[in-house]
Design a protein that fits this description.
Mean pLDDT: 92
Distance between the termini: 34 Å
Largest sheet: 8 strands, mixed
Strand content: 5-15%
Shape: elongated
Order of helices and strands: EHEHEHEHEHEEHEHHHHHH
Low-confidence stretches: none
Helix content: 40-55%
């Protein structure tokens, strides 16, 4: 199955982070995309920004053989109420949902007759460095599954997971970039507090994080190994690490990921 068109219901940040690189790479031709948003002003702005058809009437988007559902989870019931039933026959259309916390069972109940995929991408998809977790409905044919895998592979790493693990992936990989941004900003603030000009402090913090990640990845290090490589007895680094432990930074990060996962589960329960 290679859909000849893509409908997009909702064009928020996540949908645009997925769609822009796919359009720029020519994976999905712009003239084969039909998107729908709530307001006329948003439709005009996004049509100019993306170069695809954007309107307010969802009928054409729902008519596509594959639909990306990217509204807020709280709007699921209202969107489902306006979705037409798919045409009868074996060639059922494909629904790819990026709604946080909304399970496959709930999607299949809300959109009867559709073959459903639950996708959990993250914002770095925008630059081809994303992570996407995928869980499948039971009736998804192999060719549709492969098309979805290939689609998300164009924007980063793809992980096929049991659905029970998607809340954890969302918390770590999808919410994680915001946590990483807070850490980066805080490190740069520390540089400023130490007397560095802010632009230089941010440049150094960003370069340090990028270089540290590259070292861990390329040499296959456990993070604790890099920590021990840098921290010498009675030195500056161990003094800094002591402050982090006293402040409970490690525990705070663990609790932040757990809070995000619990919120994802709560969204489905709601």
């Amino acid at each position: 199955m290679k859909p000849s068109g893509l409908g997009v219901i909702g064009l928020g940040r996540m949908a645009r982070a997925l769609l822009l690189p796919l359009l720029d790479q020519g994976v999905i031709p712009r003239d084969q995309v039909q998107a729908v948003v709530a307001s006329a002003d948003s439709a005009r702005r996004l049509q100019a920004e993306l170069g695809v058809a954007v309107g307010r009437d969802p009928a054409q988007a729902w008519a596509a053989p594959a639909v990306l559902l990217a509204v807020k989870p709280q709007l699921l019931a209202a969107v489902a109420a306006g979705a037409p039933p798919p045409p009868p026959g074996d060639d059922a259309p494909l629904l790819i949902s990026v709604l946080a916390g909304v399970t496959l069972k709930r999607l299949e109940r809300s959109f009867p007759g559709w073959r459903c995929v639950r996708a959990v991408p993250n914002t770095p998809c925008l630059v081809g460095a994303g992570i996407t977790g995928l869980a499948w409905g039971d009736d998804l044919p192999a060719e549709q599954r492969q098309w979805v895998l290939d689609l998300f592979a164009h924007v980063g790493v793809v992980k096929e997971l049991p659905e029970s693990q998607l809340d954890g992936l969302l918390a770590l990989a999808s919410s994680g970039p915001a946590m990483a941004a807070v850490l980066l900003e805080a490190l740069a603030d520390g540089g400023v507090a130490s007397g560095l000009p802010r632009p230089l402090a941010l440049e150094l913090a960003l370069g340090m994080m990028a270089g540290s990640l590259k070292l861990i990845q390329e040499q296959g290090l456990h993070p604790a190994q890099l920590k021990d490589m840098v921290a010498s007895p009675a030195g500056t680094t161990i003094a800094a690490l002591r402050q982090l432990e006293q402040a409970g930074v490690r525990s705070a990060l663990i609790e932040a990921v757990l809070a995000a996962a619990e919120r994802s589960r709560a969204l489905n329960a709601g």
